[in-house]
Amino acid sequence: MKKSIKRTTVLPLALLCLAATWRAPDAEAQKLERAIAEQAGADKAAASSQAKIDQLSNQAQDMAGKYRQALAETASLKNYNEQLGIQVKSQNEQLTKIRQELTDIEATQRDVLPLLKRMVDTLEQFVLLDVPFLLEERTKRIATLKNLMERADISTSEKYRRILEAYQIEMEYGRTLEAYEGTLGAGEQAKTVEFVRIGRVALMYQTPDGGQTGFWDRETKSWVEDNRYTHDARDAIRVATKRGAPDLLWVPVPAPKEVPK
After folding, report:
1. How far apart (Å, rounded) are the C-alpha atoms in residues 254 and 73?
2. Of 2, 66, 139, 222, which one has the fewest beta carbons inside 10 Å?
3. What is this structure's pTM?
C-alpha cells in the first residue's frame, strides 16, 4: 500500500515539468515579436523625425537665403537713399539759388524797364533831330518799339533785343550809301524825287528828269535847291543803285564851326 501512493505522487510532477518546457518557446517568440515590433515602430518614428528634420533644414536654408537677400536689398536701398539724399540736397540748393535769381531778376526788371523806355525816347528824339531820310520807316520803327514796351506778353530780354536792333540799324545808316524814291513837300507842292543819302554826311535829291537838284541844309533845317550839284547827285545815285562803279563823290557839306570852350 505504501509503494502505490509514491508512484502516484511522482507522475503529476513530471507532467508539470513537461508542460512548463513546452510553454517556454511560445513566451520567447512573443517577446521577440514585441521587440521587433517596437524596433520597427522606433525605426518608423526615427524616419519620420528625420523627414521632419530634413524639412526643417530645407526651410532653414530657404530662410537663410531670403535673409541674405533681404540684407543685400537693404544695403542697396540704403545706398540708393543716400544718393537720393545727396540729389535732394543739391536740388534744394539749386531751388534756393533759382529763387534768389528770380528775386534779383524782379529787382533788375524794375531798374531795366525805365532804362529801356528812356532808350526808346532818346532814339525818337534822335530821329526827329537827324537828317530827314526814310522818315516814315524810322518813325514806324519807333512806334513799334513804344507799343512793344506796353505789352506784358513780351519778355524784358526781347524788348531789350529789339531796341538794340533799332539802334544798330541807325548806326548802319551812318556808314552806308543809299538811294530811294520818295515825295518832297506836301499838298500841291509835293513832288516825286529820288533821294540819295551818303551816310549822314549829306542827303540830296533830284527830280526824275534831272531838272531840279537840292540838298538838306543842317543849319537851316530845310531843303535847299542847288542845281550846281546836278551831276554830283546823278553820280551818287548811280553808285548807290549799283549802276556805276564806286567813285569820288562831291557833296554839299557845311563849313566847320569853332566850338566854344
Report:
1. 90
2. 2
3. 0.58
